[in-house]
Specification:
single chain; 372 residues; seven-stranded parallel sheet; 17 helices
């Protein structure tokens, strides 16, 4: 693509980072309309969501981190600036971009405790690599401290907050949410429990809990949203083995009576699905994944729950719990009991959700700081 402006290459690993970048991409397009933007990904699902979300952008694959592949990609795109989302350290890519004097910026940067411990064992190598990066915009002071301990000069680090708070939708009357409500056959008196970003065994546990709750709450509807599309069929089999009607989002026929359970086997819809929820559970938190993004349901004012393993979102979880804006459930039994209590008590649901929405609103502004 020829353009009178600069070439800006942003990299997002997969779906989460692709959607994270939306407010930044919008600002770049507004402020620098003559620049050409490239967005690279490393996963198939990430590319599918990127092409659907940003039809006007140049979507490309990120090269394998071999010197010849990196050189070929840089020769083709010839970027004037590299922007890496979160913390993607590809040694050959960073070395080659630095050798060509291409500025490299990491935005929304973070280093988990587990990664930090591993990087410390390679401090010499990490220091050499980090010093080739021109600027780090990190989510919080803790990540800045970890970077400095690994050898990154402090004057190159800015604490901007997390862009994830800016990219969330706050409006439960959004047209996509209203469309989903109608398409799923949800009435005004429906109680909706969304269990999203799940991994095994969370779907099976949710179905067990739902089976016990359905008699008590006849208007209850469960929406399951697995984290990975390769598990859609597996989860569908779990769902179809249960003694209640179920449906797949991708196969919804017209004029069909609403089912008790819906499997969302489409991509990129979870951020709107959360807007349907009265009670939400954020998955990847009962296994070794370390949690998924709980900011989206919190922004809608959903009564948010999650399991005990949430180290990937440590700061967000601590803040939500400190503000009494979410509930951590340490076991399957606790999950069942807390869900039942929240479904029974609309006042607790509303108070929990309002505190969550207020917290998210108080954290917004990272995109502006990142752009600055």
């Amino acid at each position: 693509t020829t353009s009178p402006g600069r070439r800006i290459w942003l990299h997002a690993v997969s779906v989460g980072e692709v959607l994270l970048l939306k407010p930044v991409l919008e600002k770049l397009q507004q402020q620098y309309p003559h620049d050409t933007l490239y967005l690279s990904v490393t996963t198939v699902t990430g590319r599918e969501v990127a092409e659907k979300t940003y039809p006007s952008l140049n979507i490309v694959w990120f090269p394998f981190d071999f010197s010849w592949a990196v050189r070929r990609a840089l020769n083709l795109i010839q970027p004037d600036l590299m922007i890496l989302a979160e913390l993607e350290l590809w040694p050959n890519f960073i070395r080659e971009a630095h050798r060509r004097s291409i500025p490299i910026v990491v935005i929304n940067g973070r280093i988990s405790e587990k990664s930090f411990r591993g990087y410390l064992r390679l401090r010499g190598l990490m220091s050499s690599l980090l010093r080739r990066i021109d600027r780090f915009a990190v989510q919080e002071a803790l990540h800045a401290e970890r970077l400095q301990k690994l050898g990154m000069p402090g004057e190159r680090i800015s604490v901007t907050g997390s862009i994830k708070y800016d990219g969330v939708n706050l409006d439960q009357r959004h047209p996509r949410i209203l469309e989903l409500r109608q398409g799923l056959g949800l009435g005004e008196d429906s109680l909706v429990w969304v269990v999203g970003s799940t991994q095994a065994p969370e779907e099976a546990w949710a179905l067990d809990i739902f089976q016990k709750l359905k008699a008590q709450f006849p208007k209850l509807h469960l929406i399951l949203v697995p984290r990975h599309q390769e598990r859609f069929d597996e989860v569908a089999r779990l769902m179809e083995a249960r003694p209640f009607p179920s449906q797949r989002r991708s196969q919804l026929p017209a004029n069909k009576p609403p089912a008790a359970v819906t499997l969302v086997d489409t991509l990129g819809e979870l951020k709107y699905i959360w807007g349907l929820a009265h009670v939400g559970f954020v998955g990847g938190s009962f296994n070794e994944r370390g949690g998924q993004n709980m900011i989206e349901p919190a922004a809608y004012g959903v009564a948010v729950t999650f399991g005990p393993n949430t180290w990937n979102f440590q700061h967000t979880v601590q803040a939500l719990l400190q503000h009494q804006a979410a509930i951590m459930v340490p076991s399957k039994e606790d999950w069942a009991a807390v869900t039942e209590r929240l479904l029974q008590d609309p006042f607790e649901r509303a108070e929990l959700g309002q505190r969550a929405a207020d917290f998210v609103a108080s954290q917004q502004g990272a995109t502006r700081k990142t752009m600055d």
